[in-house]
Model the fold of this input.
Amino acid sequence: MNAASEQRHLVNKTFDEIRVGDTSTLTRTLMPEDVKLFAILSGDANPAGSDAQYAQSGMFREVIAHGMWSGSLISTVLGTQFPGPGTTLIDQSLHFARPVSIGDSITITVTAKQKFAHNQHVVFDCVCTNQEGLQVVRGTAEVLAPQEKISRLQESRMPEIRIDDKRERYAHLLERVKGLEPIPTAVAHPCDEESLKGPVMAFEAGIIEPILVGPENKIRAVAEEFDLDLSGIRIVHAAHSHDSAAIATSLVRTGDAEALMKGSLHTDELMGEVVARANGLRTSRRISHVFVMEVPTYHRPLLITDAAINIAPTLEDKADIIRNAIDLAHIIGIPEPKVAILSAVETVNPKIQSTLDAAALCKMADRGQIQGGILDGPLAFDNAVSIVAAKTKGISSAVAGHAEILVVPDLESGNMIAKQLEYLANALTAGIVLGTKVPIVLTSRADSAETRTASCVIAALIAHHNRKTGTV
Done:
């Protein structure tokens, strides 16, 4: 679209040019974003327009627009079309005949009814009808009409506004496990507010049955301090954090728990017990970590791996890291994930090891050594997530611009990508360890209770999959 097509002329009608009976119309369709934006700007958080569940139980059985949304469209016609720029609204009277619902197309018609020469006022009849021709609003508006002719160019495209409601994304994630049986989960050393609040929230949401492992008096003290209800939650006493990790891991080995969750202890303490060759939770796969992220500026889920376990993975390690991530993608509903193997560049360069690994991994997929996904690489981050960037660089790929799994060269780069998306792009984040006998919820000590609860959802989905496939 060229610059000229993005502009329009705003031309008004002065008082002298207006004739009784002259009309102007505007049609606008109500979108979900309109309702949210109007609520934000006006402060009117009436649940009939903001809470779909409440709206379904109300009079109209669906989300409806604020009444003044339609009224504001009358003002739009008067101020931009007829009479147009220079118009001042003096008085307005409206009657609301029926509700406006999401998807309704409203046509606003204003008609000049009376003119008053002594003060240059004009009275307009105003009618809003829906797509079925039924009247939703009617009334009158009195304006001070423009005295001078105005003709000016205006950008016809308004700035793009993105509504990002992280709570909605969080609620949608919780719906994934609605109706499923809670998963017994050993929580190692939940001895601060967030690490205890997370499993308690997951318990209250019916996601897990937590088994809190740690110094009982300390756990109860934290619960009392932050008003957390531990009723119905089992506590297994442990002397200290190392003891908590050992006991929590043993609960998994004995079958008392089907998932493991990190509390406020250090990652090395927990993973030391997990990887122990004698009593750990290893499988034939390399253990790896995946960040499952819902990024409001991206059109599909992103799985970032490995950003927490493998510091500098070898080619063999990366093959297992990819296999683990593909398996998780299948479990969460991505049947054939697009896997982008990242590097700093999108061409194979013998001086950059990650590009050589990417090329080898893609060839391994071609030969059936890695199955279940579509691999491409090396790809730079922009090529992996932006089809525009990929086309600009002449990359023709089923993965470029649509990646669902991002395989990073090393832990440092992966951790930075994930933390940037979480803190700068407001991504909803879950962290999970794979390649073990059971899923392990592994979050940062700085992560919120919501992040921990979101991670429990992913762990529960994996655990239920393990039950179905007999791998428990």
